Amino acid sequence: MTQRPSLTLIGGGLVGALLARQLAQHGFAVEVFEKRPDPRRGGFLGGRSINLALAERGLQALRTTGLADEVLKRAVMMRGRMVHATNGTSGLQRYGVDDSEVIWSVSRGALNMLLLDAAEASGVRFHFGQSLLDADFDRRRIRLADEDGMQREHDTGLLIGADGAGSALRAAMNAYAPLGERTEPLGHGYKELEIPAADNLPPALVQQSGGEGRFALEPHALHIWPRGGYMCIALPNAEGSFTVTLFLPAQGAHPSFATLRDAAAARAFFAADFPDLLPLLPRFDADYAEHPVGTLSTLYLDRWHLDGRALLVGDAAHAIVPFHGQGMNCGFEDTVTLVELLAASPNDSAGVFAEFQRIRQPNANAIAAMALENYVEMRDSVADPHYLAKRALGAQLAERIPGHYMARYRLVTFTHLPYAYALERGRAQDALLEELLRGAPDVEAVDLDAAAAMLQARLSPLPVLRHG
Ligand code: FAD
Ligand code: 8RB
Question: Second label for 398, Cα 20 to 30 Å away, from 18, 37, 89, 353?
Fold first, then answer.
């Protein structure tokens, strides 16, 4: 075997830990510097439960490294979006065609700890409580600070930045040679609230029954309270609680975070706009007062690497807004591509980094665009009759001609087809659905045989899908 270069990763978050594991499995010597203390040492106790939606792309990356089953054991299946209308009624819109097309709610803390264990078991060396300050790319040295501010220097191998949206390695690379960095703020912020497990709520409020009575709401769904310009969502946690996120304009006329300065103002707003949700939030005032307003933006870079010396992956390269639930999934997909390229050409890091960017950047741009679009869909369109008509027509066509029609959401969430393909295909399909509905007062009036024939004539067949 040829001598493989050693790798120095900055950041042991979701992407860094998973990438480290895969690289070590391929015989690379890997060390990771992580700013925060080791979360496995009691740190997460008493912390808030934050969950994420894991979809096929992320699952596939976990499968390649033998971790998918273990992750799924602790995950809660979500079959679709449960839309809670203003009048208090709710209904499930399935994400896929059946239970083979579902997404999974996983705990960020538990997932990160599982990935750290797995990476360590494969031989990765972690240095916790070590924050990157800057990098000398010519001398291949980095400067780090520990939690007490004590600084030290360290010789590195190839540098990979998996240090998230606020990446310190990116800042160091950008200072050495500009990366063409651009941040586009969404102008909306978010705040996390919690619905406790049902045994901590008055029984009269618990809206679902059956074998899973520890949940206050239907557990197997991603809940959405769409309200036009803003919304709340809730994802289930395995122990029975839900993490709720309020998305709202940061500034401007009521309602915005600027006009909801304190818990009392926010409570009045919830009582008016989310009357069915507020009673499920017994810690509303404390959560609202204590949890910070998070900001949301999209990050674009012209370059993700410094020749063969340093590369950015995950959020450090392409942070996106959350509305497609694909940030982690996209970062996990990055790791598979990078490891394949590095394993094939371990001694050509400049070629590998350039090729990685060539393959991944158009896809990162595509999911960034689709994530922005999905905010409008989630907060607004899910209750719009024209949107629902298109969705219903699409579902019938998907059943009739599965080789020619697959909703964009399904292409993104349940396949490994490139994000850029999903974006382009979605546009073409959408134009045809619009055309079909223009000539018909409603879905029932569309001649499905003629519609299917038209799609088959005007769209290329979908690529054969690899599953599982
Ligand atoms: P991070 O997970 O941010 O990890 C970066 C790591 O680098 C951290 O451990 C950090 O401590 C460390 N670090 C930072 N600076 C330094 C430094 N100077 N030196 C050393 N280490 C450093 N994505 C989905 O796919 N589905 C979802 O449902 C979803 N939900 C989300 C919910 C929330 C509340 C948030 C905030 C994000 C969500 N995302 C979701 C996005 C997802 O969390 C990110 O895309 C993903 O975590 C990116 O992984 P990463 O490893 O690149 O960055
Ligand atoms: N970051 C998600 C979807 C798509 C849901 C749909 C949406 C919270 C921060 Cl907002 C959101 C989705 O179209 O019906 N799948 O997974 C996850 C989402 O938000 C996550 C929990 C989130 N991400 C800062 C907050």
Answer: 89
